[in-house]
Amino acid sequence: MSSTSAFPPSKSPRSDEPLTTGRLRGQVQPVASLTPDERAQMVALLATYFDDVTQPNFEADLAEKEAVILLADRERGQIRGFSTLMRLHSTIAGQPIVAFFSGDTIIDRAYWGETVLPRLWARHVFGEAALLHKARVYWFLISSGYKTYRFLPLFFREFYPTFERPTPPEIKHLLDSLALLKFPTGYEPVRGIVRLANAAPLRPDVANIEARRLRDPHIAFFAATNPGHAQGDELACLTEIVPTNLTAAGRRMLGK
Question: In this predicted model, what pLDDT tens digit does every residue of 167-186 receive, in sequence order?
Fold first, then answer.
C-alpha cells in the first residue's frame, strides 16, 4: 500500500448529512447523541445475531467510540443496522498514522443487500481522511465473519492479509502496532488474530460458511486463516484510505 495520492476536491454531500437509499435511512452521528431507546434497540439487534451479548459489555465498547452510523427503516424509524467508529493514532518511522477502527457492526438480515451503510461509511471516512493532510490514513478492522472480510476485496484494490500476496513486512509491522495498541492483551501477532476476553461470537446460522462459498478464494482464505471464527476469533485487517485504492465498486459507494 504505497500510494499517497492527494484527495481531490470533493463535491459529495457532507458526511453528517442523512442518506436514504432503498428501504433505509442512515446518518453518521456522535455516540454521545444516542438516546437510551436507540441504545436498547442497538443491543437487541446485536443479540439477534451474536451470542453472549450483554448491555454492560455493549455500553463499555460503545463508550470508547466517537461516531456511529445508524440505519433506520423508512416506514417505522426502527433501527435496522449500525456501525461504530473510532480513531487510533500512532507514529511509524516518523510518519503520523491515523487508523479508523470499525467496532460493532450489524445489519438486520431483512435488509442485507441495502447499500446505505457502505455509502455512508465511505463518505464519512474518506471525508475525514481528506482533512488529515500530514497523516497516512488506514481502515483497521477485525472480522469474525466472512461477510465483513469480503468487504475488503469488494471495495479496495490492496488490503491485508490476502491470498493474493504475502503481507509486506512494513504493513505487518503497522498492522501489529495498531492491533496491539487497541488490544494489548488480546492480539496474537504470529497468527494475526484477536481473541477478546468477552467475545460475542456470531450465532451458528450466521457464522457458518457453506461449502459452496469456499469456492470464493477470499472466503476460503478467511476460513483457513481464522479457523476459530465461529468461536469469536477476529482476523486483524488493514487497508489504506486513499481514492486510488478503491475498486470500481468502491468508487460507486463514494459517489465517484
Answer: 999 999 999 999 999 999 99
pLDDT tens by residue, 197-225: 878 888 887 878 999 999 999 999 999 99
Q: How far apart are CA 246 and CA 255, in angstroms?
A: 12
Is residue 196 within 8 Å of residue 234, measured between CB atoms? yes
Dig out the grid coordinates for 86 from the structure. 473510532
Name the 3-class secondary structure at 100.
Answer: strand
**Whether 116 contacts 26, CB under 8 Å:** yes
Q: What element of type H or E holds 198? A: none
Instruction: Tell me whether residue 141 is in a domain.
Output: yes
CB-hemisphere CA count at 13 Å for 205?
A: 3
Beta-bridged to residue 20, according to DSSP, are: 25
CATH number at residue 104: 3.40.630.30
Please check whether residue 1 lies inside any domain of the structure. no
Burial class (CB in 10 A: 0-12, 13-18, 19+), 39: middle
Cross-sheet strand order for the sheet of 79-92 = 19-21, 24-30, 67-73, 79-92, 95-107, 136-143, 234-240, 193-194, 187-188
Asked if residue 12 is part of any domain, the answer here is no
